[in-house]
Amino acid sequence: MWALRRVAIVGAGCIRVGEHWSKSLGDLFSEAALASIENAHGPSIDAVFVGNMFSGFAIHQEHLGSLLADAVALSGCSAAKVEAACASGGVAMHHGFMAVASGMADFVLVGGAEKMTDTSVPETLHALMMAENREYTASSGITFTGLNALVARLYMEKFGATHEEIASFAVNGHRNAVNNEFAQFRSAITVEQVMKSALVADPLRVLDCCGIGDGAAAVVLCPLDRAREVCDTPVEVVASSVATNVLSLCERDDLLSFDATRRASGRSFHAANLSPKDVDVLEVHDAFTIVGVLSLEALGFAAEGEGARFAASGGIALDGAIPTNTFGGLKARGHPVGATGVYQIVELFWQLTGRAGKNQVDGAWIGLAQNVGGVDSTSAVHILRRVDS
Amino acid sequence: MSAVRYWRETKFRGRLVGVKCRGCGKVFYPPRKVCRICRSKNLSEEKLPERGKIISFTVIRTSPKGFERFEPYAVGLIRLENGVQIISQIADCNPSEVKVGMDVEATFRRIKEDEQTGLIEYGYKFRPLRLESSKISAEPV
Fold first, then answer.
1. CATH code of A150's domain
2. Which in A80, A139, A274, A294 has the greatest CB count within 10 A?
């Protein structure tokens, strides 16, 4: 392989996740993108990558690269939508990384945006099943939540983990979101509340699941050796990897092994010459509590079958072994699907530059973000490192 | 769903037909053009067994578009007798009766009706194995 350039993040911005009835997809994207560009002191952008999952379905609009570049007055630059279901944002980030690392572009805007409240809930559930093998799996009437419920039941049966232990992932996210002004759900919850909430797809309950919300987030990337031109506190992207697994859950030999995440994190740890013990702050894709648990295991932060107990015993808390989802995660910050992977990067950027407010992890130097599409059919894993000043 | 796509997939979805790799013997469902295990392109159609066991299940209480009238309904992850796994709605029983390890059999059913085109989609669902049918299929297939 030829020598890659080192890549830095020099600006970040996002909007609060929620039901933005008065805002279009373009409005959502513009607010986040303009905030990130302003944060980077307005460099000349060469390329735009936009993570989005289902604008064609939800608002009958595609061609988001040109549309959204124009929306933020960047017509002329290279631009494209990147789609990988709920991993769209993380994969867009990977494309931005490749553009800068390869030398093809200097300043790149990576955004993620999703408009989820222009459709009814049944329509949105229908759209989310586009992450699976549409006709062969969806004709069973299963929802995306249902697929994860199958996994949750298998996990509990195989490892003897309790639902209460798994539920601690949601409790952790909500606790952290209280201090995040951009979070969708800013109320603390208890394990008892999760266990008493309504069943959605047995055994998963409402409070095991992320909500539906609109959102947008964006970062500006550039070569590390130019980062100081526009930013006092750049953060280096030391590794960026994307991997896939067999798309359909039921076609896998081991449904409890998140192999896309194992592959992507293996490549990223190898590229960065780091291991899980080096990571100070972690963002995992907890679209459902069980996904957070299996992600911890696949990333190497907990042994197989131990993720739930690790989370329940405080391992993921702000003062735990590995502070996780410090802005609330997908459960409480929210999960505007195609934007989520970029929210994670924005939040790590803030943690690594001392801007995480009351949830600041002292001495946070290295952060890892894992963003999943489908039930770990695609996984994007990024490792970020604070740059010595 | 378009009528053309429905027609194209009817054999596979309506009759539980997959493909078998002639190189390594692995059976796939849905059908595919190249073996995931040995990359052989020599695959031929293979009728799947119509019986299996539930290895996990869920009960859908908030359904996607087109399935509202079935709520709540059970959906199972089923391992067929030849090891192929599929996801299917579990019909003909109360969702509370569904258990891991339950023996089930395929049944041909109405899946849903397209609101716009009126196309009625048919396909398989699985139901708890019936005693009388278990006698019949004790014969070699």
1. 3.40.47.10
2. A294
| CATH tag for B49-132 (out of 3.40.710.10, 2.40.110.10, 3.40.50.720, 2.40.50.840) | 2.40.50.840
Find the distance separating the first CA and the last CA of chain B, reported in whole Å.
Answer: 33
Binned at pLDDT 50, 70 and 90, residue A235 comes out as very high
The tally of domains found in chain A comes to 1
Best CA proximity match to A114, nearest among A287, A245, A252: A287
Phi, psi of A134 (to 5 degrees): -45, -60
Q: What secondary structure does DSSP assign to chain B, as a single string?
A: --HHHHHHHHHHHHTTEEEEETTT--EESS--SS-TTT----EEEEEPPSEEEEEEEEEESSPPTT-GGG-SEEEEEEEETTS-EEEEEE-SS-GGG--TT-EEEEEEEEEEE-TTT-PEEEEEEEEEPPHHHHHHTTS--
Closest CA to A235 of A350, A319, A91: A350
Please state the ipTM of this predicted complex.
0.93
Would you state the structure tokens that stand for residue B81, as one six-digit string?
A: 């007798």
Interface probe for A, chosen from B60, B73, B78, B114 (most Cβ of A below 10 Å), is B60
Pure H helices in chain A = 25-39, 55-58, 64-71, 88-102, 121-128, 134-138, 144-159, 163-177, 191-196, 259-272, 289-299, 307-312, 329-332, 340-352
Tokens encoding B83 = 């090891």
Q: Tokens standing for B1?
A: 């769903």
Interior angle at CA A255, CA A251 and CA A260, nearest 5:
85
State whether A141 and B70 contact (CB < 8 Å): yes
Q: How confident is the model at residue B10 (pLDDT cuts 50, 70, 90)?
A: confident
The Cα A206–Cα A375 span in angstroms is 18
Please choose, from the candidates A118, A199, A212, A125, the residue with its C-alpha nearest in 3D space to the C-alpha of residue B67.
Answer: A125
Tokens of A163: 């639902």
Q: What residues of B are in contact with residue A150 (Cβ under 8 Å)?
A: 56-58, 75, 77, 87
Return d(Cα A364, Cα A379) in angstroms, integer: 24
Cis amide bond preceding A336, omega within 30: no
Sign of CA dihedral A349, A15, A97, A109: negative
The domain spans of chain B are 1-48, 49-132
Evaluate if pTM is beyond 0.80: yes
Residue A5: CB partners within 8 Å, gap ≥ 6? A100, A101, A102, A103, A223, A224, A225
Residue B81's identity, in one-letter code, is: E
- Strands A47-51 and B85-90, how do they pair? unpaired
| B window 64-83, beta carbon within 8 A of A | 64-68, 70, 73, 75, 77
What is the sign, positive or negative, of the torsion defined by CA atoms of A156, A306, A373, A19?
positive
